[in-house]
Protein 1
Amino acid sequence: MSDALIVIDVQNDFCPGGALAVPEGDAIVPGINALMERFDAVILTQDWHPADHLSFASQHPGKAPLEMTEMPYGPQVLWPDHCVQGTRGAEFHGELNTDRADLIIRKGFRRQIDSYSAFFENDQTTPTGLEGYLRSRGLTALTFVGLATDFCVNFSVLDARRLGFEATVRTDLCRAIDLDGSLAAATQAMAEAGADLSAA
Ligand code: VGL
Ligand code: ZN
């Protein structure tokens, strides 16, 4: 068996009431729990930033959340402080069935580099280790769900395709931030990369 479910960043800060709330971010939790039953492997990712992470607007005097900055690896959206290591906002949503997870992969823990993708940080070269884990377990077909469709899900799916994994996105079990058309752009990019986008 070779199918893995990859659950991206279903954490309090991305749910209503959180620091970087995604509209209806919590609505996908029951469906994700149910979907876990069908997979050989379940992997969760957890956005996990130090309090002074450089993706936070608070670290850039004069900048506000959702403005852009330049990082050594390219343009970067500045975010409100979110998913700070050890805080309630960084915890998984209380209803997510974390007991079913074989692996929890944390990302974004280096101050200088943001990490949207489950595979590589935003410099596109620093690996998280997920590729090696999947290959050594023989997991080749990946299904993605979680938050946010247009950032961490999108970057994870594009890297998965680049690395040669089969990728399915259950769009009904994802929710988006949708900044300036980012959801439409992400949907197009994932489809063009050969991901299978399905709503059931
Ligand atoms: C995410 C922005 C910043 C995500 C994480 O999980 O999509 N977005 N950090
Ligand atoms: Zn983040």
Protein 2
Amino acid sequence: MDKIQIDGGRRLVGEVTISGAKNAALPLIASSILVNGKSTFTNVPNLMDIVSIQMLLEDLGASCAFDNNTLTVDGGGINKIEAEYELVRKMRASILVLGPLVARFGHAKVSMPGGCAIGARPVNMHLSGLEALGAQITIDHGYIEAKADRLVGNEIYFDIPTVTGTENLMMAAVLAKGSSVLRNAAREPEVVCLANALIEMGAKISGAGTAIITIEGVESLHPARIDVIPDRIEAGTFMVAAAATRGDVLIKGCVPDQIGGIINKLRATGTILEVGENQIRVQGNDIIKSIDIKTQPYPGFPTDMQAQFMAMMTVAKGNSMIHEAIFENRFMHANELLRMGADITISKGNYAMVRGIKRLQAAPVMASDLRASASLVIAGLIAEGTTVISRVYHMDRGYDGIEKKFSSLGADIQRI
Ligand code: EPZ
């Protein structure tokens, strides 16, 4: 079981290039199920989750090849419509094969993804959306079974914006008979990236990136070559790390327009940001002003950045109220930060009052989920002493070579 060891107290200085977005690549790879042919995806990050979804698709009969951040997937060989529990339990995003399988084959059996550390993560909106498109849904012995001779377009209203729910139903609707409208749809850039890819494959979609997405069903799709957008959460993670270490870092290959929520909040802490065409320079300030944060669907402040910001607020001047309004249990990192001397009070499950202290002290800590591990890395970078983080497999799911990137910025960080 790998661990990460960090000697804190160094400023991050230099430049780092952002990898492709995990949360864009996963639905894109699932969309190749819709196509009888070989699709190519470039700028694919080298992550455990990408390996997991390749294994899942190969188990279904597709053939995948990954080389130098380019992934080809041939959906032509798919001869199985069941996504096994053993594969799905490794990665919840496996639910993204449900829509495409029903759309192309009229039948799918996918293991219920189950919860994870940050919450119950129900998929009720995915299922009610598929029922609206005419699928018969049954849940039996932990498996979702969906059947439809052919899906028929319809109106679908999401109670709350769901990212993978929007993506799943967009992929189901593109081959349905007639048109569909997704209302209260998620507006994340990863949803737009998927819509653009499906359009490239011959789908008829308008409104992606807004709350109302209209899809005109077509008979079939053809293979395409798709470029994965940069990972806005990885960019945000390095921006917060640069600010927290009072460093000076140029984040290259990012899309500033997609991280407005993060830029706005970082500026409020007194951090200096120079925003370029596809890069951002972040200069930390000695005094970090404390700010309040509420996580929201895009374009609000992203929940995937909450843990990283909390690490920075532990050493801000003043108190910071953090309201995690998306997931019901996304404060596990707080318990570990407390062990490093942070002053945090959790109330009513999703409010955290962080009282700034002078400095964190290094301690052995444990990662509980992907973004919590990033939070502990940032804490280790600013703490006094040597921090050792265990269970870093969580981090390997979503960050491509993170310790190499941090050490190239001057951090004393190594995998042990
Ligand atoms: C996506 O998860 C991301 N994962 C998550 O990133 C991200 O935190 C989340 O969106 C929110 O931005 C991928 O894209 C692979 P949701 P998703 O459906 O789609 C509730 C990371 O760190 N809900 O938008 O599963 C749900 O419980 C991961 O990279 C229902 O109640 O999130 C949550 O409270 C973590 N019923 C809220 O909606 C449903 O059917 C938003 O969840 C679906 C969701």
Protein 3
Amino acid sequence: MKIFVDTGSIKDIQTIADLGILDGVTTNPSLLAKETGDYRQNLKKICDIVKGPVSGEVTATDFAGMLREGHDIAKIDQHMVVKVPLTRDGIKACKALSGEGIPVNVTLCFSPAQALLAAKAGASYISPFVGRLDDIGTNGMELVRDIVLIYDNYDFKTEVLVASCRGPMHVVEAARLGADIATCPPAVIDALYNHPLTASGLEKFLKDWEKMQAVKA
Ligand code: G3P
């Protein structure tokens, strides 16, 4: 399964890229608004670091505006993926941009019906928001299960990009269900390798080693 980081922070992206396990980046307007500098230049820097798919989202809500912004985002770098919202105009823009060979990530997906339309419109990625569904008392992972099943039934090539991951178990569950990608905030990626038994086990190994060295000295 691929792991993407969900942030606009170049510093955090560089730190995670240095781990050697990063496959791509997702951003959204809320995440990019937290950063200083020109957002196009920031996205270019991110592409240079990651050299994998980097999603940049349109802010237009009408078809013509989404196409205009989508073309502009795609020009930033060959790794850019245009993110469009799962609305009527978003589906139309997805079909048009995908038809031109521009990869599209359809975002803000909250139902299997929406995911089916995105795949039919040629989306390269569908982004179900699991955390936000959990927030309103539903099971976000049930949506992922449905999408994986539907896409498998019809051999859709759209990749299932599990978004709004709030903790390591979202990532583990996404992997169990056969999702293609999980995109996580930097803290969730850290939580994937941190384990209290690893920390305490390592502490004990090192203490025992020090004791042995002291006896020898
Ligand atoms: O980038 C989209 C998504 O991952 C946002 O997550 O935590 O704001 O629901 P969240």
Protein 4
Amino acid sequence: MSLAGTPIIILKEGTQRTRGRDALRNNIRAGIIISDAIRSALGPLGRDKMLVDSFGDVVITNDGATILKEMDVTHPIAKFIVELAKSQDQEVGDGTTTVAVLAGEFLKKAEELLDSGIHPSVIVEGYRMATKKALEVIEEIGTDVKEDDRSILRKIAITSMGSKVISTYSDYLADLVVDAVLAVKTEKGVDIDNIKVEKKAGEDLSNTHLIKGIVLDKEVVHPSMPKKVENAKIALVDSGFEVSKTEFNAELNITDPSQLQQFIERETEIIAEKVQKIVDVGANVVFCQKGIEDIAQHLLAKKGIMAVRRVKKSDMEKLAKATGAHIVTELKDMTEDDLGSAGKVHQTKIGDDDMLFIEDTPYSKSVTILIRGGTELVVDEAERAIHDALCVVRNVVNTGKIVVGGGSPEMAVSAKLLKYADSFKGKEQLAVRAFAEALEAIPRILAENSGMEPLDVLVELRSAHQQGKHTFGVNPLERKVMDMKDSGVIEPIVVKKQAISSASEAAQMILRIDDVIASKETGGAGGPPGGPGAGGEDGGEFD
Ligand code: ADP
Ligand code: MG
């Protein structure tokens, strides 16, 4: 860049800049590579990935969002795809592999169009219109479910867990998931924050249980406190039974031993006052978010009060909701009205550890799923699978709409979009068509992952969908193309809508970038940090 012959330097030395076609190509490549890396995990016969981090910790999973998260990618576009899967997980809880695969397919098709000389902005516009139409089509093919139709809800949970390690137990776990969701349902719908999931390695998945109430991975703090309290009156305290630093902030200048004695006595007094307050309001169980000092433990134990310390804030909130207690900070202001209640609170051994059960809570819109399983790896994967299942069942209870799976909705949308494409005169037609073809990737990969011949499957599916059989899809387990209505593979409509729209948005965003300016430190698009290819030719590290 120069002005009247004088070069003007606007970028820091070492900054890498790639522009125009190169920048776009590099980004597209990176997106495709990352999405290709997880396609083999899609569907009920998708393979699991074993990921080992730099500390040697191992995760075995089939969950798209988890795979991407653990992959620790450095390319900014690859990171972007990882974020995409994460937000799919947060929004709707399932379809994370699907969203990453679709984003990659949209990019692949875009690359072909770029090769034939079509401008990125035309592709973006075509994709935008195709997406709008796609969402309409999904809405049309979706069907309504009654929010308490257990058999449908079970099938939704089973479909979502079907592709995970734990699928042999999915029948049993699906019942737990549906029970849990229906147990916390109110007029306002289902908030899965009211379902707590705890895990403890040991026994096997069939020992996983649903508890009406809350389970904490905690112990009673003092051995001589009661381990079981019936008709519990519960105090929730978010300050400690200890003398906080601020109460004795000043420096102590002790000149003779009696002063120290006095000081300790005063400390003890403060703690004793706090304990006395608990006794006065009539609580027999205390959950404390902070610490409980030895002396306080001793005093509480003497009064026969059960106490638990260092309870997580999120658990305190759950306890408040379920028991009706108010969380109190200033103990001196506490009254009887601040107490909550529970039928019983008990400490019980699960595996090698003690856990706390708060059961028969009056505002019982709170339940816990306690996961058991052979090893940490199993309970971790079970937790992810149960999380997904809870989300999909919640989605359907809250929105009441479903589609059948096996790639049938993607195929149906694809078929409709191909017809829709004909209504465009300009080059957008090609982009809409490309978008439609990209959607076929879902049934194609489902077929591929089950060892079927993908092209045969697509030919069969296309012809079915041209005849308007919009529920036809792939059944990888039976290795055939069939009417998925007869297979019980059911998914919430929101998962499909979210996956298509956010994958498309991501692809559009990548297509709009024509200039990558990366500081040396970040490495920038296209290469490892500081490496020779920084900001350069390809996403080499993913090959
Ligand atoms: P995601 O992370 O995208 O949810 P999954 O590995 O769970 O990925 O696979 C989901 C895809 O697999 C969906 O398209 C769904 O319809 C399909 N699917 C799941 N179970 C079956 C099944 N039993 N038969 C056919 N398709 C299935
Ligand atoms: Mg899934």
